[in-house]
Amino acid sequence: MDFGYSPEQQALRREVQDFIGANITEAVKAEMSDLNEGFGVSPGRHNSPNINALFKKIHARGWLGISYPKEYGGQGGDRMTAYIVEEEFARADISVGLNGSGAPAIMAAGTEQQKQYFLPKLITGEYSFALGFTEPHAGADLASLQCRAVRDGEHYVINGQKMYTSSAHSATHIYLMARTNPNLPKHRGISIFLFPMDTPGITVRPLWTMQNDPKAPLGTTYGTPRTNETFFEEVRIPAACLLGKENEGWRVGAMGLNLDRVGAARYLISVRRDEDIVNFVKSNNFDGYVPKQNPAIRDKIAELWIEAQVCRLMTMRSMSIVEHGGNFTYEGSAEKTWAPEHGVRTTEAIAQMLGPYGQLLNGSPHAVESGVFAHNLQGAFQSGINHGSTQVMRDQVARRGLDMPRK
Amino acid sequence: MDTTLGEEEVMIRESARKFLEAKCPTKLVRAMEKDEKGYPPELWKEAAELGWQGLALPEEYGGSALPLTYLGLVMQEVGRALAPLPLLSTVSAALTLAEYGDKALCETVLPKVVTGDCILTWAFTEQDPRYLPETVRLSAVADGDDFVLNGTKLFVENFVVADLCLVVCRTSDSGLSVYLVDAGSPGISHRPLTTLAKDKQSEVTFTNVRVPRGRLVGTLNQGAEVAQFMIDRATALLCAQMLGATRKDMEMAVEWSKFRKAFGQPIGAFQSLQHMCADMLMWVDGGDLLTFEALWKMDEGLPAYVEVSQAKAFCNEKCQAVVRSCQVIHGGIGFIMEFDLQLWYRRVCAWTTRLGTAYEHRARIAEALLDHPGQVILGQPVPVLEDA
Hints:
heterodimer; A: alpha+beta; Butyryl-Coa Dehydrogenase, subunit A, domain 1; Butyryl-CoA Dehydrogenase, subunit A, domain 2; Butyryl-CoA Dehydrogenase, subunit A, domain 3; 4-stranded mixed beta sheet; 12 helices; globular; B: alpha+beta; 3 domains; 4-stranded antiparallel beta sheet
């Protein structure tokens, strides 16, 4: 056991902090605010010269794709180093990690050609994936998905509909889960395909969220203003778009999802409001009413702080397991239950600490911290739904962590 | 950063578990609830042969000078087996003595602690149950070469078998001092309290008890710091002990749920029950992580009172919830005396009330978070360091 960071890791953290202090200029912040898609800003094809220049600098420092091998455009570094860099940038609303990118699954299951083709460009943001998992009738029970992919010579033909394809309007590619064999049991007839979004036959329709009007401020937990539904009509793609083997897509997808459930991004979206409320309460009052002198608020803040520490330590546990070359079985699911539910408890408690100020949205007169606490009420609970609901996660904790029976 | 156990740490845990599985059946636990001493001297001696009492004590006194995290692993196993040993009170006092006691006193006492020939305890709390310096009224007044103690301590663990007791006394309006007192000194009387855990706690009354000046531990009137050092270590180690017991309790309930059938299937196949169990696992794991971070920080000589309070406040509520859920999963049989589950339930409940309530610990955390300048960041020291 060692709960500290090495001198090198501490030096790296300071280096990143100094870089952020020097390079996230007002001009960058203004562009980030305009661009706000509700998540940290990732490297990509933005029409934002200052942001693009910033990511070039970050890339030059070797801070993109840290834990990916050098031959695929990464740095060949360890996961903990990547974590430290990701954490510091995430606090500045910059996303340098590859969460939700499809990259972990490609690394785990891709052909050499796919790795060469996708990974370097995913790392720099030149390519990005919309994730095509959920369907109108397949959410938590994802394996019941119906989107079809039919083999036709050296091609597959896709027909169907996907829901909540959040970046479908901006992504270059889609990471699609489709049924290739309807006669096999539902988990076994699924395959994953990677192909460009500009393939003929794809239609994207926006679904606007609660966070769209007004827009959530940067740093909101799930401040996403827009997601999409995406339709596939006779979409013809080369057979080489298949990721992993045909009909084994469930295993590949689960692998990528599990890796997406942990790390700096998931941890920070669950705990940033804890830091915010402590720092707000310790230095603010409302016309002489000092919330930090309220014993009930003090007790609640301490309780939430402890829970937030558990979020941090659970993340550290997952990182430690990966560092030892192991796979977390139930630990990732535990983290994905505890952290989102904690984020909700914090968010709801803050509303009761701030009273009517807690409902004021971004841009309103008297809004506290740009309305982030109010916007969080519209977003925090989403963390317990996306990437596997907490109910499904608890099933996994019980079954994998405690070996409890299915029947 | 590595939260997993190293090879040596696994070995410590495994050997302690094997030893207690062999030597400490629940039959012994039950017998000690009715025993006058409350502990089996043979087991205490064997524990000393394994080096438990001296595990984290300096080598110059015969100890092994291993980290507190290792001692925490042993305490977890002691909790798991509900081993009726006066270990927590002994090591908490011994660690404090080693840190603050003068060399002569340490040389007299600590080697005997290491060999299992001396049981220690300590006394802080009086009628006001909070762990605050202002609650201490028991007075120590200088008289010739001695100090004379008058007052009453409550909830003193293992006093019935202790050889020596570290007593926190008031020596001035604003100052506390700590003395190492012979438990058999003239003027001391004590009566047992009946606890939920059915372990040994006493009310101890001091009437003109004379203690030589040489028994002062630490500096005169600076005893609050000594007491805090002792209480913080005792608290973190109690958390480890609670978590060991709570995890075992959880394991028993999960096992039970796999075999107990209702409505044609094992009750453990019902999701409502699986989700209860998933929560239990997350809570026990969370408690472990908080507790071992606190112990690790103390090993590193870093300020750790916030981490200690995080662990105890969390364990008080979550361990209680886990053992209650385990009772629920077992149904009626869980509260029948001849069934073993109640042994764990009663102890964990009792331990949650000791060494600071959730409210007290959260008040300490709130003070650190809110009453010091600087921006807090999770993962960085709280209170915020001044040069940060």
